[in-house]
Amino acid sequence: MRRGFGGEHQMLRRDVKQKKQKKSAADVLRTLAEKAKSQLQDLGPVGLTQLLHACARLPPLRKHGMVEGILERAHDKLDTFPAQSLSLLVHACARMQQKDVPLLTKAAKCIAPLLPEFTAQALAMTAYSFAKIEVRSEILFYLLAEQIIQKMPLFSGQGVGLALQAYGKLQIDNKKLVQACRKHVRALSDELTLWEVDAIEQGFEKLNALGPRNLSPTESSERKIWARWQRLRDVP
Fold this sequence. Notes:
single chain, 11 helices, 2 domains, mainly alpha
């Protein structure tokens, strides 16, 4: 009985300690958020996007009007944002499902002339982020496609999947982009992970760029994976 009581006592002490630690962490985050919010006017593009990215990763930072304050300040300074900061801004908004249409529309206009400075990864993430929050700009996605095609040899399987899913979600059928992705997928097919196969296949399917699967429900998982791999390699 004594050992049982001692065990319960230890568990109780551990629970109290964990609650104190959580409360302490929450207090620290709240203090940091309040301090950062008071200094938003002094932050430039890099500082604003880094803080917004931190909010996207740490939900407690989103309280007390922090995100709204950052986006308001970003809107005023958007014309001065470099390419990387613009990409991070859109990605963070998508991650938090912040569909600030005026801000994102302005961001699209600012991004367009800077697209040649974007890396392959930034191009894919920018397209995917705009699509995730369903902000559609025909001009931007046309220019994005041009840059993606030009830098296609630098794309990983993940990048191809993100780009295809973005265009598929918004139903933007850019045939040159689809053809470039098909060609690159053939070159990457032996290196693709299962996650990448899933993403690429889903993107092609959303754009109606693949034929039927023709897989039997009774086939083994290994055979199904191999068949899907071949399906990507054999796209016309």
